Task: inverse folding
């Protein structure tokens, strides 16, 4: 009599065990590759946000002008740095759809530590009564640490300088040589330097 051939119970159990091990290894590899892909996407998103914020600050720095503002009837300096809040006048704004709108604006950088966000507030006019509502936008998110200073050329934590005559309009129209932003985003520290186009300083240098 011929004996029928087939798999024994032990062989089936061994095959199932091998399949389970291979499946577990395959799932670990897939999960690892998936996490790498997610980290790469997050890194690209963070890098894109950093680049956009840097470019926006660069555009603002190139348009900062030594123009005083009139806030509630008082002359405000062209650039103010006080308690980490940076406020400045900028010019060169053009909008073909907004006929008659002056090319000068007042911009403010304000950091909210509780939200870990750096905000950009924009006022369309240098002359303000205090009732105008600025256009607010988030310049950068996930900001764990933030610090701003002016360079003249030494690093200063406030502007105008304490030695300047507060009642002198000419002093209020002066700008520092540059600004420096130090920030930490997603555990990585950055330091951004921007040179300011100070027309008064350039005129003095041209005379020399």
Result:
């Amino acid at each position: 009599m011929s004996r029928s051939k087939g798999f024994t119970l032990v062989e089936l159990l061994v095959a199932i065990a091998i399949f389970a091990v291979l499946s577990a290894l395959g799932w670990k590899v897939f999960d690892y590759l998936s996490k790498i892909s997610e980290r790469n996407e997050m890194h690209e998103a963070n890098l894109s946000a950093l680049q956009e914020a840097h470019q926006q600050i660069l555009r603002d720095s190139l348009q900062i002008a030594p123009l005083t503002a009139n806030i509630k009837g008082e002359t405000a300096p062209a650039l103010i740095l006080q308690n980490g809040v940076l406020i400045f006048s900028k010019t060169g704004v053009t909008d073909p759809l907004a006929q008659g709108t002056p090319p000068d604006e007042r911009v403010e950088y304000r950091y909210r530590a509780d939200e870990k966000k750096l905000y950009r507030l924009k006022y369309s006019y240098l002359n303000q009564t205090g009732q105008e509502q600025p256009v607010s936008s988030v310049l950068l998110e996930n900001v764990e640490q933030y610090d701003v200073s002016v360079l003249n050329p030494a690093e200063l934590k406030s502007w105008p300088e304490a030695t300047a005559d507060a009642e002198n309009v000419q002093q209020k129209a002066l700008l520092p040589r540059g600004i420096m932003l130090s920030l930490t985003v997603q555990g990585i520290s950055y330091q951004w330097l921007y040179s300011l186009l100070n027309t008064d300083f350039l005129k003095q240098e041209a005379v020399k």
